[in-house]
Specification:
This protein has 2 helices and 2 strands; from the N terminus they run αββα. By secondary structure, it is mainly alpha-helical. It has a single domain, classed as 30s Ribosomal Protein S14, Chain N, CATH 4.10.830. It has a two-stranded antiparallel ribbon with strand order 1-2. It is elongated and about 45 Å long.
Length: about 60
């Protein structure tokens, strides 16, 4: 779980556009962020296994 101050800082508009970075809105994690789903890998996996993400299935081969 990320600090609240880091979540607020990431939500603010930066002074320069290149300073912007993505943060998971559910847990606040900054690394391993999937832009397509707008969440980190941990939240993505948890929601996919619960069936909360339509069209996402566990791979099997």
């Amino acid at each position: 779980m990320a600090k609240t101050c880091l979540r607020v800082k990431a939500a603010r508009e930066p002074k320069f556009k290149v300073r912007r970075y993505n943060r998971c809105p559910l847990c606040g994690r900054a690394r391993a962020f999937f832009r397509r789903f707008k969440m980190c890998r941990l939240c993505l996996r948890k929601n996919a296994l619960r069936g909360a993400l339509p069209g996402v299935v566990k791979a099997s081969w």
